[in-house]
Amino acid sequence: MPEWMSIRDTKHKIDNLSAEEVTSSYLDTIEKSSINAFTNINKKAIEDAKYYDKNQSDLPLAGVPISIKDNISTKGIPTTCSSRMLENYIPPFNAHVIEKLYEAGAIIIGKTNMDEFAMGGSTETCCGGTTFNPWDTSRVPGGSSGGSAAALAAGESPISLGSDTGGSVRSPASYCGVVAMKPTYGTISRYGLISYSNSLEQIGPMATCVEDIAHIMDVIAGYDNRDSTSIKRDINYSDAIINDSEGMKIGVPTELISDGINPKVEKIVWDAIHKMEDLGAIWKEVSLPTTKYALPAYYILAMSDASSNLARFDGTRYGLRVEGNNWHVMASKTRAQGFGDEVKRRILLGTYALSAGYHDKYYVKALKVRTLVKNDFDRAFNDVDVLMGPTMADIAFKVGEKIEDPLSIYMTDINNVPVNLAGVPSMSIPCGFADKMPVGLQIIGNTFDESSILRCAYTFEQNTNHHRKRPDGVN
Amino acid sequence: MSYSNTDGIMIGLEIHVQLNRLKTKMFCGCSTQYHSSPPNTHVCPVCLGLPGALPVINQKAVESAMKVGLALNCEIVEQTQFHRKNYYYPDLPKGYQVSQFDYPIVSNGKVAIEGEDGELVIRIRRAHMEEDPGKLIHMGSIDKSKGTLIDYNRSGMALLEIVTEPDIRSPKEARRFLDKLRNILEYLDVFDSDLEGAMRVDANISLQGGDRTEIKNISSHKGAERALLYEIMRQKNLLRRGEIVTMETRHFDEARGVTTSMRSKEEEHDYRYFPEPDLVPLRVKDRTEKLLQELPELPDAKKERLISQYSISDMHAKALVSNLKIANFYEEVASEVNPKVAATWIADVLKGELNYRDLTIDACKVEDIVQLVTMIMENKITDRSAVEVIRTLLDSGGNCMEIVEKKGLVKVEDNVVEQAVDDVLGENKNAINDYLNGKEQSLNFLVGQVMKKTRGRADPMIVRDIIANRIK
Amino acid sequence: MITEEDVERISWLARIEIDSSKSKEYAEQLNSILDYFQQLEELDTSDIEPTYHVDDLVNVLRSDDIKPSFTQEEALENCENKKDGYFKVPGIM
Ligand SMILES: [Mg+2]
Ligand SMILES: [Zn+2]
């Protein structure tokens, strides 16, 4: 029976059995699974596991399987972004984080499903079909890193990497009852992450417990001279795993916890905040007044970046090619058939927002709103250590429920996108259940203050039982 | 001499210069030495535009661009940020070119050239950094091609796009400006003009009463002059017939020497510039002092110094400095022999012989020219023989002394000449009589006979004097 | 307001072929999203500087040192249409 395992559990099991047996049991679970969390399996996973059985190793992740969102380049393993465009693309190089994981001894078990090119919040816009939420397979897992979160919840991998442009690790973590962090912009090298919106996104660790997030961060974070936006900072994340939040100051942004929130979710989040109070933290309401405008600003910027980032997919060097009688026609046909509807919509809107005559009205305006959003956070963090609120205003919605109305899916990111605009770190941890579906608590920190987030999250987790509950059929 | 620009010609140039003396490309560590390599062997995730690859700016490229700016008397920008210029073309692996937009690295410069009527100052509007696209090979002509092959080895090479104000008034001035620019770039050691595609020129040109056209795809200085001559003629004819010159982009067909209209749907551009989010701003003005100190002596300064240091003519100095390697070669020679004589031989003779053979000064050794000049100074060989030595050196190699000996070019002693004159005069009584009867050519015949006897090693002017004196 | 002609212009700019029978549908969809974006007009941002980068990094530069490149095989390995070491595409015009 599939089970949730922490890194510690996994290593323990490897010691008792073998890396090969642990890996093959995960592969077996994936094989039998019907939630469709993976796009590809690493054919060399068993071979890699055998290596660690033969060679004693004290590497931090020696023999530990990890699943990787399918927009992170893995040399020799297909990396498709869940798009027809890249169905047959095999990167000839590894992303920085993949190099780091290999150096730490991890076994890449496979690539996880996602909204096509990370553009979505439900993991429904995938060329290989929807991923289903393990807690209720009639519901979406959130997105765009839905495959990773679902894989964790279904016991198909102990840890995972996702990416977060506007909530893409936090949304599925919240919907699937697991833990995920979007670190401060610049903390993890984006080298090898297939860009959607460069100035907003970060790779983010995903796991079933807070401590694992810190362990993964210790492996993958750090300066990389191939990413010009990478920050030189040496932080030990595991040091922040402290079960004590005495005196910590928590701000509760009114804007995140009022409008349009499911009352059951609202209650669970308030309960969590009061729990933190019981544990010695102090809380007060704060305001992030620009929140309402963050969402349109976010979409304008993300679509603008995307329209340019995805221009390279023209059928010339890699990926899908649909022939045409000249190069421009070939490119137009290739892109028409290679991209799904949502991707096309965003490219067209981004092209429009950057085009002559509209550039200032949309693109520059959005960058100015970004300044206001950032100022909101700066002001709030003058007073408090972390901010807390719901990750998502509701529990996971039904598969197909919103797919015909793109705006309604955009709206689900409302609590998440301000974080990406400001570049600050944020985490989602399980904090309860509404209608038997997990609810996520979002903890936002100041720039480079992942430590406060981890400390709050760990204290909450160690003093509650929400993270111990599993979907049916998972131990 | 005054130049009356009766047609009101205004020419502005945009010159793409490859900073090909860098070791690596603009944004990645691929080597720039691809010119004799197989296709697609100097590429990596970054310059091939693979998904997930990120650019990192080459520091030396930035400093090279700043040096060029300083040499062109430009101002350095306070702060700049690379932008993406978005358009689709198969040579562009990312669907955008990383370039500079509103804040070019340097701007507002000027360069003086020799214009039609004396010194002409050409203003430099700006120079910005960008990356070169790959290279397309059309299977057949561009418009009827069945297919196109792409080599991305060139993709990502650092380019500097230099834009002048429309201060140029003739094709000849355009060519002189380009020559001067190339000269300066080579002095700065940022550019090797011998490599294919090193400098590409677009020209804007308008005549009084007409709109401006832009000529694309000019790959040589001579080509620029020809394209402009053609375009002026074309525009003049249109205006004379009362037709209008429309604003358009034209393609220069190097083989036919004509410009043709290239209007098409692809030409309607909306580049959607926006800041490259994968790169952070540059604030490098504070490096100006350091770079100014590293700046080498530039052509104009070198010319003045050569004139005053070696007392050579303005004309010789100009010829020498127009090629840095030749100027350096000259100075090495001049440090060992008479600088004036050296200047004459290098600027007037050697340079011409090199050009004729399409050779660079690397084909020549300093010691050979030192020996040659020494022999000329010591009257050991005639000027004619010296030219022969140079030609032989360039055509067949070897060294100066060897050639002089093997070909027996050492000038004969005076008494040998006297003897030869005696012999010739004794053998050619008729010719002497003809000369005395006023037939001037007879003297030439007699000199020729003496030269024949001495196998060319006598000085013909001296022989002529001797004979003329003897039979007067 | 995006018109059907705009859709055609943008789709050409973005090199995404759109069947002309679909232009109207696209225009409607895009307009409903643009309408939503319009609410930014409510905010007065005349005195606000745009934020391009959330951190204040400047002058991130690398030294001019050569790194290994791909082999020709690696460079072309994801491309089916190639010839003599080149990528091969249809003509431009
Ligand atoms: Mg240019
Ligand atoms: Zn490269």
Automatic annotation (TrEMBL), chain B:
What function does the entry list? Allows the formation of correctly charged Asn-tRNA(Asn) or Gln-tRNA(Gln) through the transamidation of misacylated Asp-tRNA(Asn) or Glu-tRNA(Gln) in organisms which lack either or both of asparaginyl-tRNA or glutaminyl-tRNA synthetases. The reaction takes place in the presence of glutamine and ATP through an activated phospho-Asp-tRNA(Asn) or phospho-Glu-tRNA(Gln).
Query: Any idea which UniProt keywords this protein has?
Result: ATP-binding, Ligase, Nucleotide-binding, Protein biosynthesis, Transferase
Q: How does it assemble?
A: Heterotrimer of A, B and C subunits.
Q: Name one GO molecular function term.
A: glutaminyl-tRNA synthase (glutamine-hydrolyzing) activity
EC id: 6.3.5.-
Q: What is this protein called?
A: Aspartyl/glutamyl-tRNA(Asn/Gln) amidotransferase subunit B
Fetch the Pfam families from UniProt.
GatB_N, GatB_Yqey
What family is this protein classified in? Belongs to the GatB/GatE family. GatB subfamily.
Claim: tRNA processing is one of the keywords in the record: no
Question: NCBIfam families attached here?
Answer: gatB (TIGR00133), PRK05477.1-2 (NF004012), PRK05477.1-4 (NF004014)
InterPro entries, A to Z = Asn/Gln-tRNA_amidoTrfase_suB/E, Asn/Gln-tRNA_Trfase_suB/E_cat, Asn/Gln_amidotransferase, Asn/Gln_tRNA_amidoTrase-B-like, GatB, GatB_C_1, GatB_Yqey_C_2, Gln-tRNA_amidoTrfase_suB_CS
Listed under GO biological process in this entry are: glutaminyl-tRNAGln biosynthesis via transamidation; translation
Positions of the Asn/Gln amidotransferase domain: 328-471
Judging by the UniProt lineage, the source's domain of life is: Archaea
Q: Which SUPFAM superfamilies match?
A: GatB/YqeY motif, Glutamine synthetase/guanido kinase
Which Gene3D superfamilies does this UniProt record tie to the protein? 1.10.10.410, GatB domain, N-terminal subdomain
* Catalysed reaction, written as an equation: L-glutamyl-tRNA(Gln) + L-glutamine + ATP + H2O = L-glutaminyl-tRNA(Gln) + L-glutamate + ADP + phosphate + H(+); L-aspartyl-tRNA(Asn) + L-glutamine + ATP + H2O = L-asparaginyl-tRNA(Asn) + L-glutamate + ADP + phosphate + 2 H(+)
Could you tell me which PANTHER family the record lists for this protein? GLUTAMYL-TRNA GLN AMIDOTRANSFERASE SUBUNIT B MITOCHONDRIAL AND PROKARYOTIC PET112-RELATED (PTHR11659), GLUTAMYL-TRNA(GLN) AMIDOTRANSFERASE SUBUNIT B, MITOCHONDRIAL (PTHR11659:SF0)
